Amino acid sequence: MTRQIQQVTDEPGVGELQFTVDAQILLQLGEQLVARQSIALSELVKNGYDADATTVTVLLDNVRDRSGGEIFVQDDGHGMSLSDVKQHWMRIATANKAERGTSRRFGRPLAGAKGVGRFAARKLGGHLRLLSVAEEPSKRWQTTADFDWERSFQPGTDITRVQVPYTHRPTESSVGTVLQIGQTQEPWTESDVQEVREDLATLVNPFRYAENAKAATGRRPFEITLAFAKEQGFDVRVEAPEFPELDGSLADLVLGGAYGSVAGHVVDGRAYYRVRLRETGEDLTFVEEGKQDSIFLRLECSDRSSQPPLHVGKLRPRIYELYRSCPTLSAMSGKSCSL
């Protein structure tokens, strides 16, 4: 053996070496970076959040206690152009999100900064159809790509040689992205869906602009947001016919988990307050006589200096109180907890 090594190393010549990557890496990274299928689905939803979507809808179809079902993840974000797909989605371990840090429109801190979206899709099913509509310089374009993980990405194949078919054409469809995952790998349980809801509840902003009020008055209602000046709110809708008790909007779950709420308004000089307590079921109304038909808001700056009252006109405030406690977490997740 020593003699053979000596013969090889004695051969003259210089050159350059290059790494090659086996297609098996997608499966291996998927198993290591995305430990559970609930985490994989959450990662795909977070891509919609990072794309400045206001709503992401998740449909789990025929996934309970069997494989071979379908999962749809649809968002109304800014979508991906063909260039985005080629440079970011198709590039493994891209630093695009890490370099940007925040989303383009609303300035959200990026939630899916690990860049494991395509690994998550690989873990969830044997086939992926990516359909994305984006505003490109001349018009709106739709890019569709099909990933056959089982056939095209066989172990032993150099991943740079795998051909992924796509189409690119003008469209009048709404901007956004749809991920259609077929041939689900593992059966889904109620616990899996609950884990998805719990993971995504921290992203949801239930206080969205009231579009119906805007349509009626022609004006956008006043809103206070604590984090993002341009934020439009974010909600996730889960549609799981096999788990009807877990269907619905996560925004509703967040507010439904509140210990209580206080709502109020002023009419003809009278201030009305309504207090609701979830645990006791109490629903109380108070009326306060006064001479004001509008509300003044006093602000205190971070340096504790007081500012003159801010006149905000007619206001209908509603305040929710949420505790990080077992009753609150149980109301949001649908299961018991212990801290």
- State the end-to-end distance: 61 Å
Q: Count the strands?
A: 14
Q: What is the residue-mean pLDDT, rounded to a whole number? A: 77
Give the percentage of residues in beta strands: 25-35%
Which consecutive residue ranges, at least 5 long each, have pLDDT under 50?
209-230, 294-303, 325-329
Task: Give the CATH class of the largest domain.
Answer: Alpha Beta
- The largest sheet has its strands arranged as 5-4-3-6-2-1-7-8
Q: Helical region count?
A: 11
CATH fold title of the largest domain: Heat Shock Protein 90
Structural class: alpha+beta
User: How many domain units?
Assistant: 2
In CATH, the architecture of the largest domain is: 2-Layer Sandwich
The main pleated sheet reads as: 8 strands, mixed
- H/E element sequence: HHHEEHHHEEHEEHHEEHEEEEEEH
Short account of what is shown:
The chain is of the alpha+beta class and 339 residues long. The protein has eleven helices and 14 strands. The protein folds into two domains: 24-254, Heat Shock Protein 90; 260-321, no CATH class.
